[in-house]
C-alpha cells in the first residue's frame, strides 16, 4: 500500500512533470492564460494519460518491441481523438481556445514518456496509479499557473473578479513573456521549498545521530 501511495504522490511534487521534470512545456506556456484553460487542458491530458497507460500496460506483451512507439502513438491518438470530439461537441468555446493543443497531446512527451518508461513495464494497477498521480500533478500545475497569470493580468480568477477595479492589471502576464516569467518563479519557489525540506531532514538525521551517541556515551 505504501508503494502505491508513493507512486501516486511522486507526480504531485517530487517528479512533477511541469515544475520538476520541465516537460510538456508547449501547452504549459500557451494555454495557461486563465485558470479555467489550465484546468481544462490538465483534465484532458489526464484522461488521455490514464486511458493510454492502462491500455499500453494491458497490451505490453502483445506489442512487438520494434514497433512499440508507433503502437503507443496510435493508442494515444485514439484517446486524444475522443477528447477532441467530446470537447468540440459539449464545450465549443473551450475547444476553440485550446485549439491545436488538444491534438498535440498525441506527441506530448509526458504521455509517451510514461508509456515507455512505466506503463510498458509495470502491471495495470500500478500504471493506473502512476498515470493518475502524474495527471493530477499536471492539472494542479496548469491550473495554478493559469490562475496566477489570470489574477495578475486581469484581476480575475475562473472568470470572476477578485481584485478591485482600481488595481493595476499587468497585461504582460497574459503574453508569452509573462508565461516564462511566471513559470520561472514557480520553478524557483519549488526548488527553494525542496532545499529547505532536505536541509531540515539532514538536521533531523544529524540531531538523531548526536542524541544516539550521547546516550551511548
Provide the succession of SSEs: HHHHHHHEEH
- Widest β-sheet, arrangement of strands: 1-2
The whole-number mean of residue pLDDT values reads 88
Tell me the total number of β-strands.
Answer: 2
Largest beta-sheet characterization: 2 strands, antiparallel
Helix and strand composition category:
mainly alpha
Portion of residues in beta strands equals: under 5%
Radius of gyration: 21 Å
Instruction: Give the CA-CA distance, first to last residue.
Output: 39 Å
- The total domain count is 1
Give an overview in words:
With 217 residues, the protein is mostly helical. The protein has one domain. Helices cover 70% and strands 2% of the residues. The chain is built from eight helices and two strands, in the order H-H-H-H-H-H-H-E-E-H. It has a two-stranded antiparallel ribbon with strand order 1-2. A hairpin with a 2-residue loop joins strand 1 and strand 2. The two termini are 39 Å apart. 32% of the residues are buried. The mean pLDDT is 88.
